[in-house]
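Quick entry between incubations.
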Amino acid sequence: QSVLTQPPSVSAAPGQKVTISCSGSSSNIGNNYVSWYQQLPGTAPKLLIYENSKRPSGIPDRFSGSKSGTSATLDITGLQAGDEADYYCGTWDRSLVWMFGGGTKLTVL
Amino acid sequence: EVHLVESGGGLVKPGGSLRLSCAASGFNFNNYNMNWVRQAPGKGLEWVSSISYSSGHIFYAESVKGRFTISRDNAKDSLYLQMNSLRAEDTAVYYCAREQYGSSWYVDYWGQGTLVTVSS
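Done. Structure below.
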């Protein structure tokens, strides 16, 4: 069981908005930045969001992130079929380990 | 362009050993901390180990401490993971991942992964 808690699955129709949450504690999310990763089926993870809300070049602004206290959120607007993937949050913990959430499977209906 | 290419995976019996390699290109390897992250079949991501750019700081997940050893050769732009006393629960795709620093640490590039299967 992961220390960072994500919903196992979310779903929405094309064009709609979906929100994925990531809940941690004061030893991880509460005192560190959060990053988000997209893993398309059969591929390696890819960085989507870093330092809570920044997007690497090439990531569309349909993807946005935020953090409040010990929780973080990934929002995806204008859903597309190609967004179907697993999404993971990640952060550094005070115990000097990287932590990832359990992952959320996004289904575009 | 950043490239990370893992190799060395395969089938090994419980109790056996395996050495994974990661060849880096497209960036100054000796300026970056590096990580190994694994993913068991159908499961989520699990951080395994980190090594600083100069090998001065090394960290391991509790699940592999004492069995796995991370190392790097900056002259060869390569990262390694020596895995001993392998168990069935070590079966996973192992990813090499680069760590970046802006205002904080985050993993920004991943390799394509190499599959390790521990089975008799």
